[in-house]
Design brief:
single chain; 184 residues; tt1808, chain A; six-stranded mixed β-sheet; two-stranded antiparallel ribbon; 8 strands; 27% strand
């Protein structure tokens, strides 16, 4: 997390119980976590928060933070990215992350700004539903997982996805940290 975020103190993570830095973005993440458990029925143990996806590209390295990975029944079902602002500009980031995080494609990806959401079928990249309420409930996810065949990407396609994600997340954050956001 860059230094451009206003730090409001410390707070307790809803999922893990650990102490985390309290920012406006973190408050939104906590709201999403509570929504996933209280309204969508996921167990806290089925949600992996703050998953780091390390990337290396042509000798350069960086990390992408995945806000939540949903694993009902211990099978990875959906990746959820929280990003403030426009969802349309974040779709491709979520899809690339869902194609790279594991050795197979995570079936669904979602992007949310904590007020709205877009749910995408990761293999095709198509938006299949919108709105926070469109996030699959745990029971529905478990049922859907019974019929899902996990696909794998070729190494060539994985490399392309890595380049997309590196440009959209790592380089953008570095530029913000180095130039733009320091003077805000």
């Amino acid at each position: 997390m860059g230094t451009q975020h206003l730090i409001l103190g410390k707070t307790t993570d809803f999922i893990t119980g650990s102490t985390v830095t309290d920012t406006h973005d973190e408050r939104a993440r906590q709201k999403i976590a509570q929504f996933l458990v209280r309204e969508k029925g996921y167990e806290k143990t089925e949600i992996s928060p703050r998953v780091t996806l390390p990337l290396e590209l042509e000798g350069k390295t960086g990390n992408v933070q995945i806000d939540f990975v949903l694993k009902p029944g211990n099978k990875t079902f959906m990746l959820v990215l929280f990003r403030p602002g426009s969802l349309v500009s974040r779709r491709r980031t979520a899809i690339a992350a869902a194609r790279l995080l594991e050795d197979h494609v995570i079936p669904y990806s979602a992007v949310t700004n904590a007020e709205d959401a877009e749910i995408m079928e990761t293999v095709s990249g198509k938006v299949i539903s919108t709105g926070l309420e469109a996030v699959f409930a745990r029971a529905q996810a478990v049922e859907m997982l019974e019929d899902i065949e996990f696909s794998r990407l070729s190494e060539e396609r994985r490399e392309k996805e890595k380049r997309i994600l590196f440009a959209m997340e790592v380089l953008t954050q570095k530029e913000c940290d180095d130039y733009t956001c320091k003077n805000i």
